[in-house]
Predict the 3D structure of the following.
Amino acid sequence: MMEELMHPEWSADKIEQLKDHYKNILSLLGEDTAREGLLKTPERVAKAMLTLTRGYEQDPNAILNAAKFKEEYSQMVIVKDIDFFSLCEHHMLPFYGKVHVAYIPNGYITGLSKIARVVDVFSHRLQVQERMTLQIKECIQQTLNPLGVMVVVEAKHMCMQMRGVEKQNSVTTTSDFTGAFNQAKTREEFMNLIQHN
């Protein structure tokens, strides 16, 4: 009950429809949905999926605008090691890792926690890592109009670890950038600052 109060966008009808679908899936997989351990599983999975895809209900630009402040600071602002979890749209299996974001203000800054919230919005959708990287960059560029933005995403993909090639330790890195980060020196400065010791 408490979980539902935390997510007002969850309608009883939406939960019920998802629940029915998951019950059918369990049956198709050969499970007995009347078995004690599975009685509440369809509802739990329905609520879990609504949590994992709540980014569809949120506006990342509004999040940045809610804490947009005029400031003459014009050096690089970096928020690094933002943890994220997402679902790959190809297999609906998790991919997870860290996002590093830098921007160079052009008259406006935003609350640092808002950058992390923007990552949350885009990661809580069915995604591919490349598109998520682009969407985070574009959102910050459009809303704050900085001199430049750079986003680096490092992730492990369960679709590569649990199935297919089954490679446990591979990490996929994507990056995208605008403006001042088109200069190799500026990109290099950012990359040096996010390196793990």
